[in-house]
Amino acid sequence: MPDQPHNEQEIPDRFTEILGGAGFVFLVSYVLTVPARDAWSTVDAWVGEPGLILSLVLVCAVSGALFSRLTGVRTDSLLAGGFPVYVAWWGYLEVTAGPFDSPVHILLGAFFLIGFGLGAKGGERLGNGSGWRANTAG
């Protein structure tokens, strides 16, 4: 049997991270799009659609950073779990409410994933001491 570069525990841990990332992305995305819809309508009235999208991405980024820091889930695992969540969500929307003339639901999912990814990467960098704080200390 050839030597494998990883131990046997690494694969289940990675799978658990991906499932955790998928659950987290689903939960935050659901909360941002279903119960909070009225609140985002108010934000849209104040800052317009570009400001609304930027606000949503910012919330996803902060959420991703906190999730990464608190759980230790890596950015790639978060995104690997989040992507199938959005594919399933897009499919669900197409079947139940589509077909759509606009790809806005696809773009919104992509913006959410970008926010989660940027936030998680920032959380990782701050967690391992290579972020802004480590560079300015001392």
Could you explain how this protein is built, in words?
With 138 residues, the protein is an all-alpha fold. It has one domain. Helix content is 80%, strand content 0%. The chain has five helices and no strands. The chain has helices spanning 10-33, 37-71, 75-97, 104-127, 132-136. Helix 1 (10-33) packs antiparallel against helix 2 (37-71), helix 1 (10-33) crosses helix 3 and helix 2 (37-71) packs parallel to helix 4. The longest helix has 35 residues, at 37-71. It is globular, with a radius of gyration of 18 Å. Mean pLDDT is 82; it is low at 130-138.
Assign the structural class, choosing from mainly alpha, mainly beta, alpha/beta, alpha+beta, or little secondary structure.
mainly alpha
**What kind of sheet is the major sheet?**
none
Low-confidence stretches: 130-138
Number of strands: 0
Rg for CA atoms:
18 Å
Residues in helices, as a percent range: over 70%
Strand and helix order:
HHHHH
Number of domains: 1
Mean pLDDT across all amino acids: 82
Task: Calculate the terminal CA-CA distance, rounded to whole Å.
Answer: 49 Å
Shape: globular
Sheet-strand content, in percent, reads under 5%
Number of helices: 5
